Amino acid sequence: MHTIDESPLGESFIYSRRIPVAFEALNAPLSASELIDVNAKNQHLLNMISILEGHRSDSDEDDEAIFQEVKRVEMKVDLLLLMMNKLMRENNDFPEEVALKLSAHGATFASDVLNICQYQQGTLHLYLHPMVSDPIVFSVLVERLNDQQLCLRFQGINDVMNDAFEKYIFRQHRREIAGARGL
Q: Of the given ranges (7-11, 23-27, 45-49), which has the lowest mean pLDDT?
């Protein structure tokens, strides 16, 4: 479900879903150089996810032998990526899926899901796509909304990464609407 919410995740689209999530507690916030590296890696991963989720045209050109061959190879690559990531997830201690709400400003989920304390500093690892085994990582500060729910506020996100993540959430919103309409 997607809504515009002014609080607790800011005034932006909210995207609800179940994904593998991990939290790593830190004694201190990430340094400026660590945040630069995290933002750059996150941007790269979001670009990769965008390419993987890209729309594939089903135009009249489908009759061309070259186009058919490219589609066939693309399907094989997608299958290999899925199989590789499935093996990686099975052979590693991959986190369990958690129901959460995401915005460009943070995430909320049930307080009993992960071992997290209020006002704790850490990193939130979000595994957004089944073909991408690396997580998007956010520096976060944990806040308690109520007895049942925590809010993890993203910190240290540069403008480019913030824009990219907002676009990701908006694309998910559009896909959900299109799916509900049967498009």
A: 7-11
